[in-house]
Amino acid sequence: MVKGIKKLDYAFYRRADVLAIARDLIGKLLVTRVDQVLTSGRIVETEAYAGPSDKASHAYGNRKSTRTGVMYREGGCAYVYLCYGLHHLFNVVTNREGIPHAVLIRALEPVSGLDKMAERTGKKSGDISLTRGPGNLSRALGLRHGMSGTDLCGQDIFIADDGTAVPPGSILATPRIGVGYAAEDAALPYRFIWQGNKYVSGKISG
DNA sequence: CGACCGATCGTCT
DNA sequence: GACGATCGGTCGA
Fold it and tell me: For chain A, how many structural domains are there in total?
């Protein structure tokens, strides 16, 4: 591993405050090694899903199934699922066993393995949409829903701190995307973005 | 720029 | 049998 880069440990993921974890993930590096190739990107957008009481969460009301059961595991593994039949959305499972908290990674700024990302997506390595949006970044990094449950402290998928400091004032909390069905919970400020970063999904701003 | 729509299929009812 | 924690293209103002 590259000097000066620290892989996040289980203690990071097992904290009780999923909002703090979602915020803390901004600026970290998401790294995958799929097909023997390393690809990575800096996290610039996340969303917290706060368990049984959160109407936007797959685990709302403690719903549990083969797919969502991964969310109930001890924090520190991946929850990847297929959305709309074609997009693989990558989440980080947090908190302790039995508490289905998760953080959806929604956008990255590409850091390494750009050529491989381009190959996987059929785009050019400079394409802004390469890792912008949860479906796009999963394709670029080779994340598939079959990888759900993968240990985040292993070699295949992990998140690291390379010492990059994000000014607290540049992290903005907003409502989550695409969860209009969640009634009053749709308005909760559970989405965190690195304000002004061009890889943040949605409207261009900042 | 905003609104709309088709693609596509595993999962849950 | 219906429905998405999306994306990218198209169409109209």
Answer: 1
Helices A134-141, A114-121: inter-axial angle, 10-degree rounding = 110
**End-to-end Cα separation, chain A, in angstroms:** 34
Q: What is the CATH number of the domain that holds A20?
A: 3.10.300.10
Query: In the structure, how far is the CA atom of residue A1 from the C1' atom of nucleotide B6, in angstroms?
Result: 44
Residues 76-105 of chain A with CB under 7 A from strand B are 81-82, 84-86
**Statement: residue A206 has pLDDT above 60:** no
- Integer Cα distance of A128 and A181 in angstroms: 29
- Measured in whole angstroms, how far is the alpha carbon of residue A54 from the centre of its chain? 18
Domain region containing A74:
6-194
- Evaluate whether residue A100 is within a structural domain: yes
Query: Helix or strand or coil: residue A13?
Result: helix
Is pLDDT larger for residue A204 or for residue A70? A70
- Per-residue pLDDT at A23 exceeds 70: yes
pLDDT on residue A205: 44
The reply to whether A136 falls in a domain is yes
pLDDT of A46 > 80? The answer is yes
**Nearest nucleotide, CA A56 to C1':** C5
Q: ∠ at Cα A134 (A20, A95), nearest 5°?
A: 30
Q: Is residue A165 part of a domain?
A: yes
Residue A63 CA, nucleotide C11 C1', distance (Å): 41
**Nucleotide minimizing C1' to CA distance for residue A83:** C4
Within a domain: A206: no
